[in-house]
Amino acid sequence: MKVENPKEKYDQLIADGYCVVENVLEEDMLTRLCSVTDELLDAQTEEERAAHRSSGSMISVYQHSLFAELVVYPRALQTLEALGFLRPKWSSGYVISKPPQSPPLFWHQDWWGWNDPCSYTALPQQLFLMYYLVDTTPYNGCLRVIKGSHLKRHPLHDILPSAHGAELQRVENVDHPAFQHFPGEIDISVDAGDLVIGDSRLLHASHGNQSDERRTVITLWYHPFFALLPASMQAHIGRLRQKFGWTDSDWERIAELAPVCESDVEPIKWNRNPGPELK
Prior knowledge:
The protein is an alpha+beta fold. It has helices spanning about 5-15, 25-40, 45-50, 65-70, 75-80, 165-170, 230-235, 250-255; strands at about 20, 60, 90-100, 105-110, 125-130, 145, 185-190, 195-200, 205, 215-225.
């Protein structure tokens, strides 16, 4: 796959915290992913839906073998290579689907390694790759971001509670600042099959889904410079614990992208809150 203007996209990713690459999923793969995600979503219980009312769902990709194919999807790996990420590793992923007539997703950032100084540098420690399975706009729940917030402090950093706590997931208080609009936020509308690549430190949210159809995205987490990360981070990332429905052949399929930590160092302490170094 040829990526148009890869240097521009790389520069945008580093400076703004995100970029969009169009038409990454081929039609056959898009169709298969729609079928599998619909099957998984239809099987959710009412309790599971209520627990993730804001995000819509948080279904682990370990629940179906097709997602192992997506982890090593050639067009995605070619995209990462074009951006200069030659030896990425992969760690996890989720099916996140907003049902019809559902509330917005709260503002948050997903990085957990703020205790290490490398978290305050320009190079990303972790990237999200978001595959949207339907055309997505503000009307049906597109992503919204605050560009540059992966490198610069924003008022939201000081007022957000635990990013994936029950209070926000269940939308217990829709007037909470985590659900509001902020000056400078940017909507990222995409077509089905497009790929949004973002820095895990970037503050992001999504609009509510006002349509009568699901809005499904598959989020996969990659580490573009895994070999350069501190050993304590590698130790944390290298815990591929959940197998669920994956077979041995699925694990063999992704073997080259599995994050293996060669050291027995203690994993870094999980910390989702940036320190005062983020200015």
